[in-house]
Predict the 3D structure of the following.
Amino acid sequence: MARLHSEAHVVDRIGWLRASILGANDGIVSTASLIAGVAAAGAAQHSILVTGIAGLVAGAMSMAAGEYVSVSSQGDAEKADIARERTELETQPESEREELIGIYEKRGLDRDLAEKVTDKLMAGNALEAHLRDELGLTSEMSARPVQAAVASAASFAAGAALPLVLVPMFGGPSLAWVVSGASLLFLAILGVIGARAGSAPVGMAVLRVTFWGAFAMAATAAIGSLFGTTVG
């Protein structure tokens, strides 16, 4: 007797996973870079803390707004494609049938089997069949702007809070170095989490996030040190 089994695919969580990883990464990098840059410029510890908090709030709101607008635009495009496909199925059913047959033939089915598959699917849900096989639109990949916005804002705030909590604990010239070093560790951990969640190679994910994070923090600290501008 065959045993039934369930499969959990990455595609089922791709929407919120992408937004969460992006938000957390951006929160760590931008806030740590901001703190390192301001600290290198010689700002007072209180001013650095206020600047970091302001960066956290502004960044989280910006990420939420950006994700909502971006994913909403994607959703509008999907709705337009769905409406166009529905109209074509109503006005040109034979052309749409031939289009689907051609798709299955390109995937390796012979003409007779491609026709049978097409007729069977179109008899059930023609629109769904065309959206999936012609346009690549599925419920798992559909745009969810609110979900993306919330995931992005929450993950940004969580990521930004990690380097920010170090500010009251350390002061003076060591602050920029401590925040930068700790943030690279946070980024490495994030890379591992993201790779595991997305079933991707861990080493490459860690290298990618730490390299660009180090570059961003080094560049910001260099600019702060160069100009030596005191905030506050």
